[in-house]
Amino acid sequence: MNFELNLQTLVEGTVPQDLTPSSIHSLTHDIAEFLLSSNKSISLLNSLINIYRHEVPHTLENDKRWKIFTDSIEKLLPFNNQDDILKYISGIQQSPTRNMHSTFNDEMLGNHANLSLLQSNADYAESFENMDMYSDRRSYISSHKNFLNSSNNVGTTLERLTKPYYTKLIPQEDIIKFISYTLLATTSDMFPIRQNCISIPKNISNGDSGILHHIFEAGLLYQKLNSIVEQNKKSNISPMKKALLIQISLYLRNYTGYINTLVFNKVENSESTTKQVYYKLFEKIIELRYLYVLLKDFDETDGYQYLKKLNELKNHGDLLVRETSLLLFNNLLSFYSEYLIDWLTLGKVNLNLNEFFIKINKDVEFSIYVDEDKLPTFIPKHVSIEIYIIGKTYLYLQHYFKDIQWTNTFSKRYNLKYTKYSHNIDRLFFDTIHDQYTEIVNHTNELLLHKFYFRETIYLVRDILLMGKADFIDVLIMNSNDILLSPSDSLSSYELTRYLQDSVHHSSMNNLLNRCDNNTLINKLDARVLDLGHGSIGWDVFTLDYLLDEPLLKILNVNREGGRKEYLRIFNFLWRFKKNTFFHNTETSRSTMLIRELRKISNKDPLIRDIVSKFSKCNVLKSQVYQFNISLETHTFQNIIENNFKELSAVLGINDESMEDNVMDQNNTQSLSITKLSSGLVAPDGLLKPKGAAFKTDINPKINVLKNYNIDEIEKLHNEFLSNILNNKLLSSSSNDNGTYSGNAYSTSIILLLNTIFEFLTYYNALNDITYEVLIQLNLQNSPNEINLLLGRFNTVLRNIVRQYKNFREQKNLFLRDLKSDGDDELFRLQKILK
């Protein structure tokens, strides 16, 4: 209560006289609570006073008094308890003035009173930590403690005025003595370290405290880095990460030595200051910051990611970051080069580490691939691909070629070359990789061509699975016709093998027998029976196969699900054409024989003439149906399969020898002189040299082909060859290739048409059967009733044939409309041919 009474005296003496007593009492109470609160500021004071300013008129005199009152209360802000405020107010009241109005005038604000009151109170000189309490106190000479004019205080120095505030502050000499312990993460009495936090005493000035916050960052970073190094030093981590930890531990050791040198030689000098310490530690702090950011996610980061990050940072704009990154990068690069050399010379990858860009899937045989996310940025991409191919081909030669002697010599020779580089990855290293790549690819291609018959195998697969040898397929169908018409479950492996052997001997395939390969190539020919369920016949389930062995199996359709599924799809598509062709030829031969035999009976008999006439008309329909079948088959093989095969053989460099000889003759032979014979024919004047291919009996000509393609490129080219065939609109089953009018894929429409043609031939076969029975009855001259009954069946079959032909024509016209409206030039030309 005494506090508010004394404070009310001050309020009454300074506020405008127009303010009511109740308002003065309320203002005094608010000011008292404000001064005793922990949250004090000038802005809050002004807000409080503005509430009461509106209760009095706004005049110059009132504004002057409000300013005096505000300045008076501001002088009380630095005090924290009632006693100090009362002492200050009592000092004002004891000044030789008549009343409070004369005490707080503008003239007396410049006078300075006796400062002995605050000088004797040590509570106000503890620290500058809470600057909000003193932010508006400029100095003691601006205070209103005493409004006495004293000439003794006019010459007081700033040092003397501020000295009372530093009576309990820790001297900088003592601070510097304990800094070295904290910088090495060692706790001390002055700066204790608890739970990765450093405590700074309160009796240290704000300036020193701010600098210590910067200095002690080095200690905390050192503690954290040292903890990471120690925790992972004995853990099971990769060699690259261990190398990184060792290098960083060297940095920490150098940092410790630097701190010890700094303390004993420099810092303990009596003239040293915290600012000087911070200046000398600045670069070390930057270095520690960099290392901490580098190791922050150590457990989640593998060695390659560190190598990639350091490769980027070694070109950083900051010289310190650049030099540190370069040193760490070179250290890790030496270990990464060991990964490279192990792969290049031994085909070896540590599967337990996830730091190399080459991966091996143990669950899949010979599944080696490149991890695009781990392709080294410090190695050109084409060099990385060559590295991948070298190791993969090395394993390919070892496991599938069994070329152990050559691979061992190759490995030792290049291991010696790479050792000379001291694990430096530079242009010379890249040149050696390219030389190694060229050598191993050339050797592999040489073996593929001259030991494993790569070229001959490609042509055989074309001739057999893609029906390039039409005569062999025709002979096979003729020989196996009986079993092809039998139920699928009655087919035996022995019969299939026997028919295959007979077809090879009686077709152009016989030139592959008794050659230098000991029948290796032709013996891989096989037949398969598809499992289509009960009720199927041989035509539905029969298919040819060519059993590729390693190493060719790994580059022709390697890693494809279901083996040669693409070849099976193409074969089954072409097999439908061959089936229709066989039945057409068979039924045509029968119909020709029947017509000939009917005409032998009598050319004038109206019944026979009618039968022959109807038969001839059916033959016209059959010819139109077959013409569509053969035209579409020819287009499919010539324009789709053969064109793509020619592109494949040209790219690989395995063109037919006759084609090569033609090209050679055109390029190297001079134009021949010619002469005109008496018959008008033109003939060369002289002898023509025979082509070399005519004298080549070796199945394995020594020609350098494959154009240095590696095994991945050969596989890719072969896969593209198959994909190009199956992606052709006529064979594709994609919904994007549906016809405009039918809504079906072109391949579906073709299969439906081929099935319709086969049904037409089935009816035609029934017509031949009925006609044969009629022929027998006519020759036997049986009763007219029996012949009439057969003629009725004959007419029924004729109607079925006509109906099936109309069905075919409708499907054909719809298919042709789809081709015409597609907009593709090739399909438009096909539509013209089929029309």
Descriptive report:
- The protein is mostly helical.
- It has five domains: 2-166, no CATH class; 172-301, no CATH class; 335-450, no CATH class; 453-554, no CATH class; 562-658 and 699-835, no CATH class.
- It contains 30 helices and eight strands.
- The chain has helices at 2-14, 21-36, 42-53, 60-74, 82-93, 100-103, 116-119, 131-134, 158-162, 172-183, 206-232, 239-267, 274-295, 303-313, 319-346, 381-401, 404-419, 427-450, 454-465, 470-479, 481-484, 493-505, 538-541, 565-601, 606-652, 657-668, 711-726, 746-780, 784-821, 825-834, and strands spanning 193-194, 197-198, 358-361, 367-370, 525-529, 542-546, 674-676, 682-684.
- The strands form four sheets. It has a two-stranded antiparallel sheet.
- Helix 1 crosses helix 2, helix 14 packs across helix 15 and helix 20 packs across helix 22 (493-505).
- Mean pLDDT is 80; it is low at 95-153, 658-671 and 693-704.
- Belongs to the TUBGCP family.
Number of domains: 5
Strand order of the largest sheet: 1-2
Give the biggest beta sheet.
Answer: 2 strands, antiparallel
Distance between the termini: 119 Å
In terms of quaternary structure, the protein is single chain
Strand content is under 5%
Give the helix/strand class.
Answer: mainly alpha
> Mean pLDDT, rounded to whole units?
80
* Low-pLDDT ranges: 95-153, 658-671, 693-704
Helix content: 55-70%
Give the overall form.
elongated
Number of strands: 8
Family: Belongs to the TUBGCP family.
Subcellular location: Cytoplasm, Cytoskeleton, Microtubule organizing center
Domain Gamma tubulin complex component C-terminal: 458-821
Domain Gamma tubulin complex component protein N-terminal: 179-451
